[in-house]
Design a protein that fits this description.
By secondary structure, the protein is mainly β. The protein has no helices and eleven strands. The strands form two sheets. Strands 1, 2, 3, 6, 7, 8, 9, 10 and 11 form a nine-stranded mixed sheet that branches. The protein starts with a strand and ends with a strand.
């Protein structure tokens, strides 16, 4: 597994309201954080690039780290934002994770 930190000083544009993440959506089984057991939330954000072209990221965050009342269009910062990649059963996977979101002015 490889873990790469991402500069958490960059503001992110929230593209959708946070939604629950599911381990098994068909059976309603929520995804949980491996360390804390907290339910995971997912948000889509735009990360401005150095060239001006934004990157769209889907970020998983433990529910306690997601403030109430987030709406589309709000600027946020992601604490502990990392990119993780690995391989399991011959298939590669990639995810973005953060510890928490905070709104910016």
């Amino acid at each position: 597994m490889m873990i790469l930190p991402i500069d958490s000083n960059r503001p992110l544009l929230l593209l959708a309201t946070p939604s629950p993440q599911f381990k098994d959506r068909a059976n309603g089984i929520p995804a949980t954080d491996r360390d804390t057991g907290a339910p995971l939330m997912e948000v889509s954000v735009a990360l401005p690039g150095d060239t001006g072209t934004p990157q769209i990221l889907r970020v998983s965050i433990p529910a306690p780290g997601v403030p109430d009342g987030l709406v589309m269009g709000v600027m946020v910062k992601a604490t502990g934002l990392t990119f993780l990649t690995g391989e399991k059963n011959g298939r590669t996977w990639q995810i973005f994770r953060a510890n928490a979101l905070t709104t910016t002015k």
